[in-house]
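Spend some time on the protein that follows and explain the fold to me:
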Amino acid sequence: MAGSARHVGDLPWGWWLRAGESALEDEDGRTWRTVRDAFWQGRLGFPDIHFAEEQHELLLRVLTGIDARWLAGDERKHDLFAGDMMTWRFYQCWLSSIGMLETGGRVSALEAPLSAEGRSVMLMLQATRQPEWEDVPLADVVDAIASAGADAASEARERALRAFERKIGLRRHVFARERVGRQHLITLTGISTSARMPARCAAGHARAVRRRGGGASPPCAR
């Protein structure tokens, strides 16, 4: 079946697959456990990997965002890719290269709408989505993708860093790793004695909060 004939109307991607007793079969005689496997491995050529489900969820949210036309907002881009605009641009170019975006003429891949195939893929991912993914915050989806590539060495390094940070944590001045929203920071932490109750203050944290439009100043800045 010609590719263009598959994506007519609002049918989910894979509607042409033949259901057998224990598998789905495509027009080339290849068999798949699920429609998502046929798309992930057959259409995209990706390996059968344990973090495919998280990637499916991210792809669904990106395609849904493009279809709803709210992906153009900086806040949504920040949510989807943890503020990494380089990754967001690459992802959009990748979607365009595999035919998920309609980039004919002079339309940029960063502004293009979904193609017919892109919309059919979105419908398939929505139809095959497990219920437990529906209420998962996007930040957790991104974290799941990031942690999927962590190996034993990186996990051991993280444990060693945390142990070291606990040992020096009570010093009067210390550099510390912190996270503000989706942003990772290195802050210089000290003890403020100007208030009636001494408190530890991270100067870098205070500046980050104000840059992001926080309201009141942190306790140490008052």
Remarks:
- The chain has nine helices and six strands.
- The longest strand covers residues 183-192.
